[in-house]
Specification:
The protein has 14 helices and 17 strands. It is of the alpha/beta class. The protein folds into three domains: about 200 residues, FAD/NAD(P)-binding domain, CATH 3.50.50; about 90 residues, D-Amino Acid Oxidase, Chain A, domain 2 (2-Layer Sandwich); about 40 residues, no CATH class. Helix 1 runs parallel beside helix 4, helix 3 packs antiparallel against helix 4 and helix 10 packs antiparallel against helix 11. Bound molecules: flavin-adenine dinucleotide. Flavin-adenine dinucleotide (FAD) binds next to helix 1, strand 3 and helix 10. Flavin-adenine dinucleotide binds next to helix 1, strand 3 and helix 10.
Length: about 375
Amino acid sequence: MKVHIVGGGPAGLYLAILLRQLDHKVEVWERNPQNNTFGWGVVFSDQTLASLQEPDPTTHRLMTQRMRTWENVDIIHRGVCTSVAGNRFSGIARIDLLAVLQGRCQELGVPIHYATDIRHIPPGADLVVGADGVASRLRQRFRQRFGTQLGLGSNRYIWYGTQAPFAGLTLTFRLDGDDLFMAHSYKYSQDLSTFIVEVDEATWRRLRYLGEARSRRRLEQVFAPELQGQPLLSNRSKWIRFVNVVNQHWYSGNVVLLGDALHTAHFSIGSGTKLAMEDSLALWQAFRTHSTVEQALPVFESGRRSGLDGFLAAAVTSQRWFEQARNHMHLDVLPFCYRVMTRSSRVDDTSLQRRDPAFVAAYQQWLRLNDTGQE
Ligand SMILES: Cc1cc2nc3c(=O)[nH]c(=O)nc-3n(C[C@H](O)[C@H](O)[C@H](O)COP(=O)(O)OP(=O)(O)OC[C@H]3O[C@@H](n4cnc5c(N)ncnc54)[C@H](O)[C@@H]3O)c2cc1C
Protein backbone atom coordinates (compact mmCIF):
# COMPACT_ATOMS: atom_id res chain seq x y z
CA MET A 1 0.00 0.00 0.00
CA LYS A 2 1.20 3.53 -0.80
CA VAL A 3 0.61 5.93 2.12
CA HIS A 4 0.90 9.72 1.93
CA ILE A 5 0.99 11.50 5.28
CA VAL A 6 0.48 15.27 5.49
CA GLY A 7 2.09 16.60 8.68
CA GLY A 8 5.32 15.53 10.39
CA GLY A 9 4.19 15.99 14.00
CA PRO A 10 4.02 13.14 16.55
CA ALA A 11 0.91 11.58 14.94
CA GLY A 12 2.22 11.57 11.36
CA LEU A 13 5.77 10.45 12.16
CA TYR A 14 4.77 7.68 14.54
CA LEU A 15 2.25 6.32 12.06
CA ALA A 16 4.95 6.39 9.35
CA ILE A 17 7.29 4.35 11.59
CA LEU A 18 4.63 1.75 12.33
CA LEU A 19 3.21 1.37 8.82
CA ARG A 20 6.68 1.13 7.30
CA GLN A 21 7.25 -1.95 9.44
CA LEU A 22 4.16 -3.52 7.91
CA ASP A 23 6.05 -3.13 4.59
CA HIS A 24 3.96 -0.26 3.26
CA LYS A 25 5.51 2.48 1.14
CA VAL A 26 5.19 5.63 3.25
CA GLU A 27 6.04 9.30 2.58
CA VAL A 28 5.61 12.30 4.88
CA TRP A 29 5.21 15.97 3.93
CA GLU A 30 6.05 18.58 6.55
CA ARG A 31 5.52 22.32 6.19
CA ASN A 32 8.36 23.32 8.53
CA PRO A 33 12.08 22.85 7.92
CA GLN A 34 13.74 20.09 9.99
CA ASN A 35 14.64 21.17 13.57
CA ASN A 36 12.16 24.03 13.43
CA THR A 37 9.57 23.30 16.09
CA PHE A 38 7.61 24.94 18.87
CA GLY A 39 6.51 23.99 22.33
CA TRP A 40 8.25 22.78 25.44
CA GLY A 41 7.62 19.47 27.16
CA VAL A 42 5.00 16.82 26.42
CA VAL A 43 3.70 14.27 28.91
CA PHE A 44 2.80 10.58 28.81
CA SER A 45 1.15 8.32 31.38
CA ASP A 46 2.72 4.95 32.24
CA GLN A 47 -0.19 3.28 30.51
CA THR A 48 0.45 5.12 27.23
CA LEU A 49 4.18 4.42 27.41
CA ALA A 50 3.53 0.72 28.01
CA SER A 51 1.28 0.62 24.94
CA LEU A 52 4.10 2.06 22.78
CA GLN A 53 6.60 -0.65 23.76
CA GLU A 54 5.51 -3.62 21.66
CA PRO A 55 4.77 -1.82 18.34
CA ASP A 56 8.29 -0.37 18.05
CA PRO A 57 10.65 -1.12 20.96
CA THR A 58 13.39 1.11 19.47
CA THR A 59 11.25 4.26 19.50
CA HIS A 60 10.03 3.36 23.00
CA ARG A 61 13.61 2.94 24.28
CA LEU A 62 14.85 6.18 22.70
CA MET A 63 11.88 8.09 24.10
CA THR A 64 12.06 6.73 27.64
CA GLN A 65 15.83 7.39 27.80
CA ARG A 66 15.07 11.09 27.38
CA MET A 67 12.21 11.30 29.89
CA ARG A 68 11.78 12.67 33.41
CA THR A 69 9.27 10.90 35.62
CA TRP A 70 7.22 12.16 38.58
CA GLU A 71 4.63 10.84 41.03
CA ASN A 72 2.91 13.84 42.58
CA VAL A 73 0.38 16.45 41.62
CA ASP A 74 1.19 19.56 43.66
CA ILE A 75 -1.70 22.02 44.08
CA ILE A 76 -0.92 25.54 45.26
CA HIS A 77 -3.92 27.43 46.63
CA ARG A 78 -3.76 30.41 49.01
CA GLY A 79 0.02 30.02 48.87
CA VAL A 80 -0.11 26.53 50.43
CA CYS A 81 1.31 23.58 48.47
CA THR A 82 -0.56 20.27 48.86
CA SER A 83 0.98 17.16 47.29
CA VAL A 84 -1.26 14.35 46.09
CA ALA A 85 0.70 11.16 45.45
CA GLY A 86 0.12 8.28 43.06
CA ASN A 87 -0.11 10.23 39.79
CA ARG A 88 2.78 8.87 37.76
CA PHE A 89 3.64 10.69 34.53
CA SER A 90 6.72 11.16 32.33
CA GLY A 91 7.73 14.24 30.37
CA ILE A 92 9.99 14.71 27.33
CA ALA A 93 10.99 17.82 25.35
CA ARG A 94 8.83 18.07 22.21
CA ILE A 95 11.96 18.80 20.19
CA ASP A 96 13.63 15.60 21.51
CA LEU A 97 10.53 13.54 20.76
CA LEU A 98 10.40 14.82 17.18
CA ALA A 99 14.15 14.16 16.76
CA VAL A 100 13.64 10.55 17.90
CA LEU A 101 10.71 10.04 15.51
CA GLN A 102 12.47 11.74 12.58
CA GLY A 103 15.62 9.68 13.16
CA ARG A 104 13.64 6.47 13.29
CA CYS A 105 11.85 7.38 9.99
CA GLN A 106 15.25 7.92 8.40
CA GLU A 107 16.53 4.54 9.66
CA LEU A 108 13.49 2.80 8.21
CA GLY A 109 13.76 4.61 4.86
CA VAL A 110 10.68 6.81 5.17
CA PRO A 111 11.21 10.02 3.14
CA ILE A 112 10.17 13.21 4.94
CA HIS A 113 9.74 16.17 2.59
CA TYR A 114 10.51 19.11 4.87
CA ALA A 115 9.62 22.74 4.15
CA THR A 116 6.78 21.62 1.88
CA ASP A 117 3.42 23.21 2.56
CA ILE A 118 0.80 20.87 1.10
CA ARG A 119 -2.07 22.68 -0.59
CA HIS A 120 -3.47 19.74 -2.54
CA ILE A 121 -3.42 16.09 -1.61
CA PRO A 122 -0.27 14.44 -3.01
CA PRO A 123 -1.69 12.19 -5.79
CA GLY A 124 -1.27 8.47 -6.33
CA ALA A 125 -1.77 7.16 -2.76
CA ASP A 126 -3.92 4.28 -1.58
CA LEU A 127 -4.24 5.98 1.81
CA VAL A 128 -3.97 9.71 2.59
CA VAL A 129 -3.50 10.73 6.24
CA GLY A 130 -4.34 14.21 7.51
CA ALA A 131 -1.98 14.57 10.48
CA ASP A 132 -1.60 18.29 9.86
CA GLY A 133 -2.57 19.55 13.29
CA VAL A 134 -5.34 21.59 14.86
CA ALA A 135 -5.78 23.94 11.87
CA SER A 136 -5.67 21.02 9.38
CA ARG A 137 -6.08 22.24 5.83
CA LEU A 138 -6.93 18.73 4.72
CA ARG A 139 -9.82 18.60 7.20
CA GLN A 140 -11.01 22.04 6.13
CA ARG A 141 -11.06 20.93 2.52
CA PHE A 142 -13.47 18.06 3.29
CA ARG A 143 -15.17 19.78 6.21
CA GLN A 144 -18.68 18.79 5.10
CA ARG A 145 -17.73 15.16 4.63
CA PHE A 146 -16.00 14.93 8.04
CA GLY A 147 -18.82 16.83 9.76
CA THR A 148 -16.29 19.06 11.50
CA GLN A 149 -17.34 21.17 14.47
CA LEU A 150 -14.95 23.72 15.96
CA GLY A 151 -15.41 25.45 19.32
CA LEU A 152 -13.37 27.93 21.34
CA GLY A 153 -12.69 27.76 25.09
CA SER A 154 -13.51 30.95 26.98
CA ASN A 155 -10.13 31.11 28.82
CA ARG A 156 -6.92 32.40 27.26
CA TYR A 157 -3.67 30.51 27.69
CA ILE A 158 -0.03 30.77 26.77
CA TRP A 159 2.82 28.19 26.68
CA TYR A 160 6.14 29.13 28.25
CA GLY A 161 9.18 27.25 29.46
CA THR A 162 11.20 27.97 32.57
CA GLN A 163 14.32 26.79 34.36
CA ALA A 164 12.51 26.99 37.70
CA PRO A 165 12.55 23.50 39.22
CA PHE A 166 9.17 21.75 39.59
CA ALA A 167 8.97 18.40 41.34
CA GLY A 168 5.96 17.05 39.49
CA LEU A 169 2.86 18.44 37.85
CA THR A 170 2.21 21.68 39.74
CA LEU A 171 -1.13 23.49 39.47
CA THR A 172 -0.91 27.00 40.92
CA PHE A 173 -4.01 29.13 41.49
CA ARG A 174 -3.44 32.77 42.38
CA LEU A 175 -5.80 35.67 42.88
CA ASP A 176 -4.12 39.04 42.43
CA GLY A 177 -6.66 41.73 43.16
CA ASP A 178 -9.58 40.81 40.91
CA ASP A 179 -7.39 38.82 38.53
CA LEU A 180 -7.22 35.02 38.59
CA PHE A 181 -4.10 33.31 37.23
CA MET A 182 -3.66 29.54 36.90
CA ALA A 183 -0.39 27.86 35.99
CA HIS A 184 0.13 24.26 34.85
CA SER A 185 3.82 23.39 35.17
CA TYR A 186 5.86 20.21 34.92
CA LYS A 187 9.47 19.21 34.56
CA TYR A 188 10.43 17.47 31.34
CA SER A 189 14.24 17.61 31.22
CA GLN A 190 17.23 18.04 33.51
CA ASP A 191 16.73 21.80 33.76
CA LEU A 192 13.53 22.79 31.95
CA SER A 193 9.84 22.80 32.79
CA THR A 194 6.73 23.63 30.80
CA PHE A 195 4.81 26.57 32.30
CA ILE A 196 1.33 27.15 30.83
CA VAL A 197 -0.65 30.07 32.19
CA GLU A 198 -4.41 30.20 31.85
CA VAL A 199 -6.62 33.19 32.68
CA ASP A 200 -10.36 33.70 32.60
CA GLU A 201 -12.14 36.23 30.41
CA ALA A 202 -12.42 38.87 33.17
CA THR A 203 -8.66 38.73 33.82
CA TRP A 204 -7.90 38.69 30.11
CA ARG A 205 -9.86 41.91 29.54
CA ARG A 206 -7.39 43.69 31.85
CA LEU A 207 -4.29 41.84 30.62
CA ARG A 208 -4.70 42.12 26.86
CA TYR A 209 -3.65 45.77 26.67
CA LEU A 210 -0.20 44.90 28.01
CA GLY A 211 1.03 42.96 24.96
CA GLU A 212 3.11 39.75 25.22
CA ALA A 213 6.33 41.15 26.73
CA ARG A 214 4.66 43.19 29.48
CA SER A 215 2.09 40.52 30.30
CA ARG A 216 5.01 38.04 30.62
CA ARG A 217 6.65 40.33 33.17
CA ARG A 218 3.33 40.58 35.02
CA LEU A 219 3.11 36.76 35.14
CA GLU A 220 6.69 36.57 36.44
CA GLN A 221 5.61 38.83 39.31
CA VAL A 222 2.38 36.93 40.00
CA PHE A 223 4.20 33.58 40.07
CA ALA A 224 7.40 34.88 41.70
CA PRO A 225 7.27 32.34 44.61
CA GLU A 226 7.05 29.40 42.18
CA LEU A 227 9.50 30.76 39.58
CA GLN A 228 12.15 31.49 42.23
CA GLY A 229 13.71 34.31 40.24
CA GLN A 230 13.78 32.39 36.93
CA PRO A 231 12.31 34.16 33.88
CA LEU A 232 9.55 32.75 31.69
CA LEU A 233 11.06 31.60 28.38
CA SER A 234 9.15 32.33 25.21
CA ASN A 235 9.25 30.21 22.06
CA ARG A 236 6.73 31.69 19.63
CA SER A 237 4.51 31.93 22.73
CA LYS A 238 1.28 33.80 22.29
CA TRP A 239 -2.06 34.10 24.06
CA ILE A 240 -4.64 31.87 22.42
CA ARG A 241 -8.00 30.25 23.15
CA PHE A 242 -8.18 26.48 23.21
CA VAL A 243 -9.72 25.11 20.02
CA ASN A 244 -12.09 22.18 20.52
CA VAL A 245 -12.09 20.01 17.40
CA VAL A 246 -14.76 17.35 16.90
CA ASN A 247 -15.36 15.33 13.72
CA GLN A 248 -18.51 13.34 13.18
CA HIS A 249 -16.72 11.12 10.65
CA TRP A 250 -13.06 10.23 10.98
CA TYR A 251 -12.45 9.25 7.36
CA SER A 252 -13.90 9.87 3.96
CA GLY A 253 -12.99 7.57 1.08
CA ASN A 254 -9.27 6.93 1.43
CA VAL A 255 -8.59 10.08 3.52
CA VAL A 256 -8.32 9.70 7.31
CA LEU A 257 -7.64 12.23 10.08
CA LEU A 258 -5.32 11.71 13.05
CA GLY A 259 -4.17 13.60 16.16
CA ASP A 260 -5.07 17.27 16.63
CA ALA A 261 -6.60 17.37 13.13
CA LEU A 262 -9.13 14.80 14.35
CA HIS A 263 -9.78 15.88 17.95
CA THR A 264 -8.28 18.04 20.67
CA ALA A 265 -8.23 17.40 24.43
CA HIS A 266 -7.65 20.23 26.86
CA PHE A 267 -4.09 20.33 28.20
CA SER A 268 -5.35 20.12 31.82
CA ILE A 269 -6.12 16.42 31.42
CA GLY A 270 -3.13 15.16 29.48
CA SER A 271 -1.23 16.12 26.44
CA GLY A 272 -2.50 16.13 22.89
CA THR A 273 0.75 14.44 21.92
CA LYS A 274 -0.09 11.29 23.82
CA LEU A 275 -3.50 11.10 22.15
CA ALA A 276 -1.98 11.78 18.73
CA MET A 277 0.43 8.84 19.09
CA GLU A 278 -2.32 6.58 20.44
CA ASP A 279 -4.34 7.38 17.30
CA SER A 280 -1.40 6.24 15.15
CA LEU A 281 -1.20 3.07 17.19
CA ALA A 282 -4.91 2.38 16.67
CA LEU A 283 -4.68 2.95 12.91
CA TRP A 284 -1.65 0.67 12.68
CA GLN A 285 -3.52 -2.00 14.64
CA ALA A 286 -6.42 -1.78 12.19
CA PHE A 287 -4.02 -2.29 9.25
CA ARG A 288 -2.32 -5.19 11.01
CA THR A 289 -5.53 -7.19 10.94
CA HIS A 290 -7.23 -5.75 7.83
CA SER A 291 -5.28 -5.37 4.62
CA THR A 292 -7.51 -2.99 2.64
CA VAL A 293 -8.29 0.67 3.29
CA GLU A 294 -12.03 -0.05 2.96
CA GLN A 295 -11.84 -2.61 5.77
CA ALA A 296 -9.29 -0.96 8.05
CA LEU A 297 -10.67 2.60 8.33
CA PRO A 298 -14.09 1.63 9.81
CA VAL A 299 -12.29 -0.72 12.22
CA PHE A 300 -9.95 2.11 13.23
CA GLU A 301 -12.82 4.52 13.83
CA SER A 302 -15.09 2.21 15.78
CA GLY A 303 -12.28 0.71 17.87
CA ARG A 304 -10.57 3.97 18.78
CA ARG A 305 -13.82 5.88 19.37
CA SER A 306 -14.90 3.55 22.15
CA GLY A 307 -11.71 4.18 24.12
CA LEU A 308 -11.49 7.86 23.31
CA ASP A 309 -14.99 9.30 23.74
CA GLY A 310 -15.00 9.02 27.55
CA PHE A 311 -11.55 10.55 27.71
CA LEU A 312 -12.53 13.49 25.48
CA ALA A 313 -15.71 14.10 27.50
CA ALA A 314 -13.62 14.20 30.69
CA ALA A 315 -11.22 16.64 28.99
CA VAL A 316 -14.14 18.99 28.22
CA THR A 317 -15.38 18.72 31.84
CA SER A 318 -11.88 19.56 33.07
CA GLN A 319 -11.60 22.47 30.62
CA ARG A 320 -14.96 23.88 31.85
CA TRP A 321 -13.82 23.50 35.47
CA PHE A 322 -10.79 25.70 34.79
CA GLU A 323 -13.05 28.17 32.97
CA GLN A 324 -15.22 28.36 36.13
CA ALA A 325 -12.37 28.06 38.66
CA ARG A 326 -13.15 31.47 40.14
CA ASN A 327 -16.28 29.93 41.69
CA HIS A 328 -14.10 27.60 43.79
CA MET A 329 -11.46 30.06 44.96
CA HIS A 330 -13.29 30.78 48.26
CA LEU A 331 -12.75 27.16 49.38
CA ASP A 332 -10.25 26.16 52.06
CA VAL A 333 -7.09 24.41 50.90
CA LEU A 334 -8.18 20.76 51.34
CA PRO A 335 -11.68 20.99 49.81
CA PHE A 336 -10.21 23.05 46.98
CA CYS A 337 -7.57 20.38 46.28
CA TYR A 338 -10.23 17.68 46.43
CA ARG A 339 -12.27 19.56 43.82
CA VAL A 340 -9.21 19.96 41.61
CA MET A 341 -8.39 16.26 41.77
CA THR A 342 -11.98 15.12 41.09
CA ARG A 343 -12.88 17.88 38.60
CA SER A 344 -13.45 15.44 35.76
CA SER A 345 -15.10 12.08 36.10
CA ARG A 346 -11.77 10.26 35.63
CA VAL A 347 -10.66 10.42 39.28
CA ASP A 348 -13.33 9.43 41.79
CA ASP A 349 -13.22 8.79 45.55
CA THR A 350 -12.11 5.19 45.11
CA SER A 351 -9.22 5.96 42.79
CA LEU A 352 -8.15 8.93 44.91
CA GLN A 353 -8.14 6.63 47.97
CA ARG A 354 -5.93 4.18 46.05
CA ARG A 355 -3.57 6.94 44.88
CA ASP A 356 -3.13 8.76 48.18
CA PRO A 357 -4.94 7.43 51.27
CA ALA A 358 -3.23 10.06 53.50
CA PHE A 359 -4.66 12.91 51.40
CA VAL A 360 -8.17 11.40 51.53
CA ALA A 361 -7.87 10.88 55.32
CA ALA A 362 -6.80 14.53 55.79
CA TYR A 363 -9.70 15.73 53.66
CA GLN A 364 -12.20 13.56 55.55
CA GLN A 365 -10.89 14.90 58.81
CA TRP A 366 -11.30 18.45 57.49
CA LEU A 367 -14.92 17.61 56.65
CA ARG A 368 -15.54 16.33 60.20
CA LEU A 369 -13.97 19.41 61.79
CA ASN A 370 -15.56 21.95 59.44
CA ASP A 371 -19.23 21.34 59.12
CA THR A 372 -19.57 24.63 57.24
CA GLY A 373 -21.59 23.45 54.29
CA GLN A 374 -18.63 24.21 51.99
CA GLU A 375 -18.86 20.71 50.56
C1 LIG B 1 1.68 27.01 20.32
C2 LIG B 1 1.48 25.58 20.79
C3 LIG B 1 2.36 25.03 21.67
C4 LIG B 1 2.19 23.71 22.11
N1 LIG B 1 3.08 23.20 23.01
C5 LIG B 1 2.86 21.97 23.49
C6 LIG B 1 3.70 21.45 24.49
O1 LIG B 1 4.67 22.07 24.92
N2 LIG B 1 3.39 20.23 24.99
C7 LIG B 1 2.33 19.47 24.52
O2 LIG B 1 2.10 18.36 24.99
N3 LIG B 1 1.54 19.92 23.58
C8 LIG B 1 1.76 21.15 23.06
N4 LIG B 1 0.91 21.62 22.16
C9 LIG B 1 -0.16 20.73 21.67
C10 LIG B 1 0.49 19.74 20.71
O3 LIG B 1 1.14 20.47 19.71
C11 LIG B 1 -0.50 18.78 20.01
O4 LIG B 1 -1.50 18.28 20.86
C12 LIG B 1 0.23 17.57 19.43
O5 LIG B 1 1.45 17.99 18.90
C13 LIG B 1 -0.62 16.88 18.37
O6 LIG B 1 0.18 16.15 17.47
P1 LIG B 1 -0.16 16.13 15.93
O7 LIG B 1 0.92 15.35 15.28
O8 LIG B 1 -1.56 15.72 15.75
O9 LIG B 1 -0.13 17.64 15.47
P2 LIG B 1 1.08 18.67 15.40
O10 LIG B 1 2.11 18.37 16.42
O11 LIG B 1 0.46 20.01 15.39
O12 LIG B 1 1.75 18.36 13.99
C14 LIG B 1 1.13 18.73 12.77
C15 LIG B 1 2.24 18.97 11.76
O13 LIG B 1 1.65 19.21 10.50
C16 LIG B 1 2.38 20.23 9.86
N5 LIG B 1 1.51 20.84 8.86
C17 LIG B 1 0.38 21.56 9.08
N6 LIG B 1 -0.16 21.93 7.92
C18 LIG B 1 0.62 21.42 6.94
C19 LIG B 1 0.58 21.48 5.52
N7 LIG B 1 -0.38 22.14 4.87
N8 LIG B 1 1.55 20.85 4.82
C20 LIG B 1 2.55 20.18 5.48
N9 LIG B 1 2.64 20.09 6.83
C21 LIG B 1 1.69 20.72 7.54
C22 LIG B 1 2.76 21.17 10.99
O14 LIG B 1 3.87 21.98 10.66
C23 LIG B 1 3.08 20.19 12.12
O15 LIG B 1 4.43 19.83 12.16
C24 LIG B 1 1.09 22.93 21.66
C25 LIG B 1 0.19 23.50 20.75
C26 LIG B 1 0.37 24.80 20.32
C27 LIG B 1 -0.61 25.41 19.35
